[in-house]
């Protein structure tokens, strides 16, 4: 059973409204506080949202791409604030990058027809987590970029690679 991680070096009472909002968004509206494996919990939640989008609209690719863009903009703004609050270059509670990576992995799958997409989503998410944790090149190279750019781009690279691998595996 996941537990909520409430350890935070910055006192909640000393944070501004913008800092509190940044923390909430960067932590995936609380998903980042689920322990152990906040990134995995956030990835699973993002996969469920992606599956719901794919099964409910013909515009899934466009909606997911818009979600990726929105996550990236929020992440670039919020990640540096959460990093300062947590005293870490990439705190485990920061999961908006996982959401963006999963949604990109799904958006790039070649077949998003609901009857075919669920297997692709499951495989793409599993591959995404492996790549996000193992950080092979070029994912590791992206991670070395400064600040929020590095935090976001390593997961985008992992998502793009995961989508390509899933498409190749599923033929």
Structure description:
This protein is an all-alpha fold and 171 residues long. The chain has one domain (15-170). It is 69% helix and 2% strand. It contains seven helices and two strands, in the order E-H-E-H-H-H-H-H-H. Strands 1-2 form a two-stranded antiparallel ribbon. Helix 4 (96-107) packs across helix 5 (114-134). The mean pLDDT is 92.
Main pleated-sheet profile: 2 strands, antiparallel
Number of structural units classed as domains: 1
- Give the radius of gyration: 16 Å
Distance linking N and C termini:
36 Å
Structural class: mainly alpha
What are the low-pLDDT stretches, counting only 5+ consecutive residues below 50? none
Shape descriptor: globular
The number of helical segments is 7
What descriptors fit this protein?
single chain, 171 residues, mainly alpha, two-stranded antiparallel sheet
What's the SSE blueprint?
Elements: E1 3-4, H1 17-26, E2 34-35, H2 38-56, H3 60-86, H4 96-107, H5 114-134, H6 139-143, H7 147-170
Antiparallel strand pairs: 1-2
